[in-house]
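Figure 2 data, in text form.
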Amino acid sequence: MRSPDDVLLRFPNRLRILLLLLPMAIGIWILVTSMRQGPGVGGDAAIYITSARNLLTGHGLGLINADGTFRLLPYFPPFYPLVLAALIGLGFSAETSAMLINLACFGAAILLLSWLIMKASRSLAAGMLVGLLLAGSPILIPAYSWAMSEPLSIFLIVVAFYLLHRSLISDRLAALVGSAVLAGLSLLTRYSMAAGILTACLIVLFIWRGSWKKRFLSAIIYGLIAAIPIGIWLVIDLRKTNTVASRNLLGNINLGSEIARFFNQLKPLFLQWLLPDSFISRMPGSVGLIVTLAILLVIGISLICSLPALSKGKDDLEDRNQTQILVFTYALFFILYLLQIMLVSVTTFPPITIGPRMVLPAAIAALMVVAVPVGHLFSQKTLSSWIKWLALTGLLLFAAYSGLRGVRIARQNAIDGLGYNTVAWRNSQTIDYLASHTISSDALVTNEETALLYLLGRASWPIREVYAREADPVYYSYIDPIDAEETDHGRELFQTGEALLVVFDNFPDQMADLYGSAAPERVAALMKGLTPIFKGDDGVIYQMDSKP
C-alpha cells in the first residue's frame, strides 16, 4: 500500500502546486466571507484609520483633538497606519485597504508556512495539512477579520525568520540584512514583536558561521539594524508626546499573584486552539491547566531536542539540520513571546488584555513546532503506510472540524458585522440623529469617543471616568459645579450649553467595570437632573438647556 506522499508524488507537478495553493484559496474565501460587512473596527482600529486619513490630508499621522489641537499617533507604533495611508492614497477606501492588508498577509502566511513545513518534513501531505489548519482556523479567522496590526506584524516576522534561515544556509549577507529590516518593521507594527527580534538575534548568536566573537558581533549588528525603525519613531514620539504607551509601571508588585492571574487568563486561550467556547465553559478548570502544561511541555521538549542544531557543522552551515533550526526558531519564539507578554502583564497598569488576539503569534509558532515532527512521520520510509493513512485521516478530520468552526464564525460575522461595522452600529438611531441634527463644530461629550470618531469623523470629549478607567470617590451629578482643582473640559462645555452629552446604552457596563455592583447607583447619580433631547434605541442625548 502506498503512503499518502507516494500517492501525491504520482500527481503531475502542476496539480501538486495547485494542491499546495488550495489551502490559501480556501483561507482567502473564508476571510472574505467574514469581512462581508467590512473589517472589524473598534477603538484601536478607529485610531489607526483616522490617523492614516489625517496624514493624507496634511495634518500628520495622528488625531485632531476635540479642542482642535493635533496629537501624534498615541500609544501605537506607526507602520500599520502608514501602510493603510499608502493604500488609501492609491484610491482605496480605508475599509478596503484594511481588508487588502488582511487578505494579503493571511494568504501569504498560509502559503509560506505550509511550503516551509513541506520542505522541512519532505511531506506534501504535511504542508497541505498545515495550510488547511491555518486557512480554517477559528483563532486566526476572527483576528484577521479586524482592521488591526496583528496580520501585518505576523507576516513580517514570518518572512524575517524565513530570510534568516536562508542566510544561515547560503551565507548571504543580503538575506540577513533583509531579515533584520523586516523584523524591525514588525516591531514598528506591534511592540510585542520585540520577542521576534530577540529570537532572531539569538539564532544568529548560536548558529551563524564563524567564531563566537564574529557571531556575537553579527547578532549585535542584526539587533541594531532591526532597532533603527523603532528608534527613529521613539525619538519622534517622545519629542512630540513624552509617552510611547498607554500603561504605567506598577509600584509594589505581588509577583506570585500577578503570575497566577496571567496563567489563569492563559488557560482558556490554549483550550480555544482545540475546542469551541461552548465546550470549554462546561469543562472543569483542571482541563485547561492540563492542556496548558501539555502545550508548554511539548514546546519545551521540542526546543531541547532541536539543540543539536546549535553544535553541528560550526564551520559549514550547509551541513546543519535545517529542520532542527526551524523547530528551534519557532519554539524559542513561542517561549520568548509568552515571557514577554507575561512580563508586561504583571508589571503594568492597566493590565493588558490577554485574549485570543494577543496569543496569536504563539498559536502559529506552536503549530509550526508540532507540524515538523508530524510531517517527518509521513516521510519515514520504515513506517507502515497504514499508520500514515490513519494518522493523516485523523488529522484531516481535526482540520475539517476546526475549519467548520472557522466557517461558522465567518458566516456569523458576515451576518452581524464586526465592531463599528455591525448592523446595530450602522443603524444606530443616536448616530443618525447626530449626523442629521448637529454640525461638525458642535462639541460632543460621550462614553464612546472612537465610535463617533469612526462613524461621524468627529472628535469628542470623554466622560471622565470612562477615559481615566478609574472610579471617582464622589458620586457627583453631571450638572454639579466643578471643583477648581478638577480638569473636565467636556463637562465644563456641557454645563455652559456648548456641548451635547451623548450616552450610549453600553455606559452601565463600562461603569460596572469600575464600580462593580454599585454601578447602577453611580450612573443614576451622574444622570440626576438631566433631561434628554433625544432618546434612541441605543442611546440618549442630553443638553444643559433642557434641564427642568
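Caption note: The first strand starts at residue 62 and ends at 64.
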